[in-house]
What we know:
The chain has 404 residues and is an all-alpha fold. It is built from 21 helices and no strands. The radius of gyration is 21 Å and the shape is globular.
Amino acid sequence: xxxxxxxxxxxxxxxxxxxxxxxxxxxxxxxxxxxxxxxxxxxxxxxxxxxxxxxxxxxxxxxxxxxxxxxxxxxxxxxxxxxxxxxxxxxxxxxxxxxxxxxxxxxxxxxxxxxxxxxxxxxxxxxxxxxxxxxxxxxxxxxxxxxxxxxxxxxxxxxxxxxxxxxxxxxxxxxxxxxxxxxxxxxxxxxxxxxxxxxxxxxxxxxxxxxxxxxxxxxxxxxxxxxxxxxxxxxxxxxxxxxxxxxxxxxxxxxxxxxxxxxxxxxxxxxxxxxxxxxxxxxxxxxxxxxxxxxxxxxxxxxxxxxxxxxxxxxxxxxxxxxxxxxxxxxxxxxxxxxxxxxxxxxxxxxxxxxxxxxxxxxxxxxxxxxxxxxxxxxxxxxxxxxxxxxxxxxxxxxxxxxx
Length: 404
């Protein structure tokens, strides 16, 4: 065997080999954690930290960029599932419950914006960051629900909140991002042009979703596809949607969420999409967790002032969510507490844009970037545990089945 083949650097010079090794390590660690009653997907977090920029440095932004389309595809499946679990009819009929979830989104954004301004940030920066702090992470919530095999009224409400929060976050992000970009360019008169550009992204995502869903519906009806054949055709439509959004700079988040909403609320036929792709989704969750944690710089948590603000924001968002849930009559006090905790995660700018290589916006000041970095680090390290604990507190974890 040649020296080149047994050379250590050669084995680790392949990004695909690194990805495979990381996933293998993540799943091994996950099984160990699961055997001790802990969330299995923290194995992916540990693997990412060990192999990423805070550990051995084998997986960094350059490696992640090479697999960006793969990560976007995994994110697309998560967003589609979030949309598929949004019950628009229930949100309308439930009145108090639906209004409480909507109020929670508003309060989370308002409280975050006020705290950031009090901490010395400008209104444009505070508004931009507060827009992201409205939403809970679809990836963290969906993966923890899958990990716990949880189901029940809290999980149902949480799924609707995640979808509602991400849509609202995106809608609020449009004007705040336009304002931040216009201010950064030194020409406030350019705000209108920036706003129209961002609105065009939303409109493009909406049009692409309607087109791809229409093609899926037409294809399945013309071919008279049976239920077991439709998941493959739906997956093809999702890939078309993601690809068209990518090349047109349309909003992939809105488009993919809408695809899921249409499947649940417009499609009357039975579908078996979830059952067919459960294994693939679990691998996708592990991949996304591992890559997110591999890019976390733990030294950002050593900026004590930024860390203090980040912890304050985490606590304030949970408290605001709990206050907003008070008028709802259908949930008990413990269910409301559990729902507020399980919504403690947040999304990054890159996740809202369905581009995991984007971890922030360059127009932010140094202080704002430090707070955002601390928030994202805490999101990877702490938010999954909060979500997992919230599901257990609700009594909807699989270990609690039959005792609620």
